[in-house]
Amino acid sequence: MTADTPAGSRRHIPNALTILRLVLAAVVFVLLARFQATGLGAGSAHTPDATSLQSPHASAQRAILLAAAILFILAATTDFLDGYLARKWRVVSKFGRVMDPFADKILILGSFILLAGPNFAISNPDVAGSGDAVALTGVQPWMVVVILARELLVTSLRAALEGSGVDFSATLSGKLKMVLQSVAVPVILLSVAYLPHWFESASGAIVARTPLPAAIAAWLTTLVTAWSGLPYVVRAIRAGRTTDRSLPN
Fold it and tell me: How far apart are the first and last CA of the chain?
């Protein structure tokens, strides 16, 4: 974008990027919902072989994950661009202040919810009388609950305190959390698409396991997301004490 861009056009570009992020998020969700882990080469009834892993259906499932990863990266990039341009051009709007974080949370939370879905799980054959389902993404439902709880808590605290005139802008931990979440999703998608997830167990059975990068990304994102909420809680407690002292007895 050149420096001589009309001011009127500049005013709409950050908001247009925010809307674009919502559109891209919707497309990512459709792709993730269409994916079927069993299409990568095996289901609960049989183990994979070289033919099934190279089948057109397996290639199509990998293409879905690749497309979702690329679109997610593009959507996450608009998060940086819209805020940067709004500040640079001094065109921060009420629409942007509301919709920008909303679009962020829709993109991240929606992606993690779908990554914890049953279509990303593969049932292992029964070993010693008990079978189990493996989430290839490494994202468990309880992890999504932790991430969602953190976002709801911080959003509620921000709304309550900023309504009382207290500055509750994002902290470094919050920004780090957002960067990690934005990196984790494509890492998980590409790991599921291209890294092996079938291994031979100690008993000789072929079993499914979460690819190591996906497992690390899922756990690290959950832990950092939970940790990143602590500074906000501390700030809220301190702000509450300051407000209480300022009230007349």
Answer: 56
The residue assigned the tokens 């002292």 is 245
CA 172 to chain CA centroid, nearest Å: 18
Q: Are 161 and 239 in contact (CB under 8 A)?
A: yes
In Å, what is the CA distance from 119 to each residue of 34, 73, 123, 203, 218?
Answer: 8, 22, 11, 27, 17
Rounded Cα distance, 124 and 136, in Å: 12
- What is the per-residue DSSP string for 197-210? -EEE-TTS-EEE--
pLDDT digit string (tens) for 14-29?
A: 889 999 999 999 999 9
Q: Phi and psi dihedrals of 205, rounded to 5?
A: -80, 150
For residue 246, the model assigns a pLDDT of: 53
Query: Do the beta carbons of residue 147 and residue 225 sit within 8 Å?
Result: yes
How far is Cα 137 from Cα 143, in angstroms, rounded to an integer? 12
Q: Give CA–CA dist 3/192, Å, rounded.
A: 43
Amino acid identity at 3: A
Altogether, the residues listed in the chain come to a count of: 249
In percent, the amount of the chain with pLDDT more than 90 equals 49
Provide the pLDDT confidence category of residue 50 given band limits of 50, 70 and 90: very low
134 membership: H or E segment, kind and range: strand 133-135
Residue 210 to residue 215: CA distance in whole angstroms: 6
Cα dihedral sign, 195-198-199-202: positive
Question: Is the overall model pTM greater than 0.70, yes or no?
Answer: yes
User: For residue 204, with 0-12 CB atoms within 10 Å meaning exposed, 13-18 middle and 19 or more buried, which class applies?
Assistant: exposed
